[in-house]
Design brief:
- The protein has six helices and 15 strands.
- It has a six-stranded antiparallel β-barrel with strand order 10-13-12-11-14-15.
- The mean pLDDT is 95.
- By secondary structure, the protein is an alpha+beta fold.
- The chain has two domains: 145 residues, 2-Layer Sandwich (Gyrase A, domain 2), CATH 3.30.1360.120; 68 residues, Beta Barrel (Elongation Factor Tu (Ef-tu), domain 3).
- The radius of gyration is 19 Å and the shape is globular.
Length: 271
Amino acid sequence: MASAFLDDRGVLSVSGEEARSFLQGLVTCNMDKVSPEAAGFGALLSPQGKILFDFLIVEEPEGFLIETGSDAVSALLKRLSMYRLRAKVTLEERPDLGVVALWDGATSEGLVFDDPRHAGLGRRAILPRLEAQAHNHDDYETHRILCGVPKGGLDFAYGEAFPHDADMDLIHGLDFKKGCYIGQEVVSRVEHRGTARKRIVPIALRGPAPAPGTEIRAGDIAIGTMGSATSAGRALAMIRLDKAEEALANATPLIAGGAIVELLPAHMVRA
């Protein structure tokens, strides 16, 4: 059993009689499917369809809790407040709450729910911060990378990446039947075209792991950038798929910093 207090995650609440409909018109996931037992994974996009914030949303008795990066809580609350207008909702930062990741059968008190992005990730718990801090500090980052799940700020840049770039269509972050939300037209166009030019993919490294953002090159051509990496040579990277296919067809090695990059097939990702 493994658990980890995630000190880089924070929480805000959205409550009030119109909380569900308010969020439904803003975020990429379908709020009608979010309940205390079934969390949602989604994002708030720019009008141009780029990811500004991504988060997990779960229902509680008073409304909804949104779990996002701790350094983004205030900015997300401010952004949501811009859209509140006359909606009957209350937005509040919740520094009293902490977030714990649970996997390999670990349990916790608090509001516990399955991580909707990937079955292998396990569960999440939101509970009083002091209680959350008492949990283990197991290596959740390695676990996340082995599951192939991207992390904003490391594997993609907020304000620059589209949802398909960050695999949100593959990890249950987009609902194509829910109706309109901010940036929805751009997301729908990419989906209907059926081709994402770049994706975050799992890779193996032979050599020291380069820093996130390091260019991955095939000869003189830049085909992607490094994301987060484990100490054992597994990592995630944003790759231009067409350029990578061309390089592989020509037997051109992929290099990042001083490491050789090998693209891994989907079955190498932890289920």
